[in-house]
Amino acid sequence: MRDKQDYEIYAATLKERNRIAREIHDNVGHLLSRAILITGAMRMTNHISNLREPFDSLDSSLGEAMDSIRKSVYDLHDDAVDLEKTLEELITNFTFCSVDFSYHMAKTIPRDVKYNVIAIVKEALNNTIKHSDATLVRLTVSESEALYQVIIEDNGTRLSPDMPTNPLNSDTPGIGLINMAERVKKLKGSITFYSQNGFRIYIKIPKH
Fold this sequence. Notes:
By secondary structure, this protein is α+β, with helices and mostly antiparallel strands. The chain has helices at 2-45, 49-79, 83-93, 111-131, 175-186, and strands at 98-104, 136-143, 147-154, 190-194, 199-206.
């Protein structure tokens, strides 16, 4: 019961952040844009040298304010992305085979971790459709004190038994696998591929 209440509070908080982000963008952002246009027009038509510096200063200040608003809206919106919910939506839309999903993460997760995990899971599910005859995919997303961990595995049998432990070391690694590896590398993590008894992707991302 406590967990359900906590999640409802968290979901309501995310919804409110999105609402605030939209209002800032639509209202304050619009007013600042109009002020920047008016200031620009006044600078173009101004012929009084004493006013040139104040106009330049005003234009610069408005530009900084707009940049600050954009960053605030961006941060509010991105923080409102619910990793668990997004992964559940991916799984719901994945009709190729069944998915066993296990999720054990804190509510606060770095933005870059969230977005890269989502992209990697998308890529992995697409690869399952293209290259496997799997009837089951297991997706585990968890964290320990020092690491985030993502495990994606299927029981498919179409992969060659001669496939190396790390397909990235083969002569013709798939583009999807390369994309996953590059994303993990940016997060200072490690990714390992296994091809025994299906296909398994094991990712470890250190907490910074």
